[in-house]
Amino acid sequence: MISIKSQYEVELMRKANQIVKDALNLIEDNIKEGMTTAALDKLAHDYIVKCDAYPSFLGYNGFPASICTSINEQVVHGIPSDKRVIKEGDIVSVDCGSIYKGYNGDAARTFMIGKVSEEKAKLVEVTKQSFFEGVKILKEGVRLGDLGNTIQSYAESFGYGVVRSLVGHGIGRDMHEDPEVPNYGRAGHGMRLRKNMTIAIEPMINIGTYDVRMLDDGWTIVTADGSPSAHYENTVLIKEDGVEILSL
Ligand code: MG
Ligand code: MG
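Above: inputs. Below: predicted complex with magnesium ion.
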């Protein structure tokens, strides 16, 4: 079911998303070569709890941590570990969520560690920009197919693969609500967005093929061809004349 948010609900989602944004900024300020992904998890967890919020990923379908950390060929849903040490040249996607007074925030960034290859740096930049290309066309009445098509066309113009099997989503009381928000699609198709809907838009872009597979841990999604992947996400509020990005 698709939910239209009241002003009160939007206010709580603003707060939940600001907590996520600040947790990601804290990670950005601290992430460096030699750190473990478990240390990043602890940073985010402690910050979110300090804000009187709950890290929504923790325990979600049994997920064992407060953030997802996905490095290089890992696309999303990587599990933080005290055995995984971040190295110079890595690209590290961090996905983070919080629940504040019953409402969800959700956002992701891909961080570059020290000097990364030109190839990876370009991927990270284009993935982020593909989100903003999508946002440019968004307002009440725009179809989901037009949003997906805009993101896809931009990313594919660089020869990249747009992940198909994972998509963005409505968000509110639940982290994952209807509708599904694909990063690909056919212009002129799909449902029309309505004012005061809140959706998480999250392009997952691979240097190579869009095919992905899951590792034996039952969570981590990696590219099928081993090529690097990047992720960028924000929660947005649909308005009459555009959007408000709640997690920026
Ligand atoms: Mg997310
Ligand atoms: Mg999401």
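The mean pLDDT is 98.
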